[in-house]
Amino acid sequence: MTTRRDDRMTLVAFMQAGSTSVYSGSWRHPATEHGYLDASYYAKVGRQLEEGCFDLMFFDDRLAMPGIYGGSVAEAVRYGARPVKLDLSVVLGVLAQATSKIGLGATYSTTYYPPFHVARTFATLDHLSGGRAAWNVVTSVNDSEAQNFGVDAHLGHDERYDRADEFLEVVAGLWDTWEEGALLHDRTGDFADPAKVHELNHSGRFFSARGPLTVPRTPQGRPVVIQAGSSGRGREFASRWAELIFTGDPGLEVAKAHYADQKARIDAAGRDPRSVKICPMAYAVVGETESHAREREEMLLHELVHPMASLTLLSELMNYDFSKHGIDDPVTDELIASVSGIRGLVQNLREHLGRTVTLRDLAGHRATLLQGPRFVGTGAQVAEQMAEWFHGDACDGFVLAATHMPGAFEDVTRMVVPHLQRAGLFRTKYEGSTLREHLGLPVPDSSRSVAGTSA
Fold first, then answer.
1. What ranges in 99-231 are assigned the alpha helix state H?
2. Cα–Cα 20 to 30 A to 407, which of 161, 180, 401, 438?
3. Taking the CA atoms of the chain, what radius of gyration do you get in angstroms?
4. Between residues 251 and 395, which one has the greater pLDDT?
């Protein structure tokens, strides 16, 4: 089974529209610019990444301030544990105007938004950006988010994915309610061809939607679909729907096994494994010399992240109040059984660390440089480390997270990307204009694929 379509890496910039990057100590970094409430800040970062020929800038999101730890948002506010999150539709609108090539992606929840809203939002972005939109599908299980939206109880793990499957069926169906060529703009006759605009008439277990969508078929046919589920059911969901999969594997061997498993599942689902990109989240700590890079790494590991910020973010992620445990307590089988979604993460860390996992390890995985692979050294050394993963069938590229903003991305574009380009591992210029073209992904069939009557 061939798993890779080409021999060039995919590079995604992992963004937050707020005060802190994925690395929770980033706001304390002496080189961080606190311009996150200014549109020009995002425009500057977007243009910088576009100069580095990145495929995509992707924005993670949460719909609440972290408030699980101790039943309060106080620690999140005090220690800067991602308390600020802007509305991504507005931020991406800014970027659609400030950039012209780089893909623009965002997280939108299948729990708190209806399918029609998501379909229209990303179809609009795809048009206004000239075919650069991507949607990261999340099911959301966090109590803090639920309390902001008046949701009293969450569905179980498998039922959430059942609901998400139907959600995707509705969104994809709505995107297909306009056929290619439906718009005519005949000033002496018809605006559009009614035979090519269709009602969806979906009525299912969780959703109903009449349609058609109020946005014509988009430049990409459909926006690119991203997913990051790591459980068995999450991987099955990704095998059916995802075109770009984000992973969080901390070590090379774990990543190789995950890559092989996911590609096999995609093949078993009847899709071409080469049509889906798999990219682990990674940090790049780059210096003019190796010793300089190691000094930066030590500061990032030991000086900038407060343990309370780590525990606050871990509680948010796991939807469990860890304030009742000591930070150096071992993660026991009893704790694993009581916390939904923690089992796969602990198993990966056990394999990576080769010892008992403590709560400090687990918290650090979410808030410090332990969350994914860490490439450290000069630009040439970091490029070599990335190439080892790429050539070793551990990934199709990387989702690069920032240790500080915007300097971490400046370091990569200035010192790492040129080495990848000289090695033939990354583009030297954009060869297309849409995100699908950047990723080498096929355009979905524009033929009629929804049931219903014409509008």
1. 115-128, 143-148, 157-175
2. 438
3. 22
4. 395
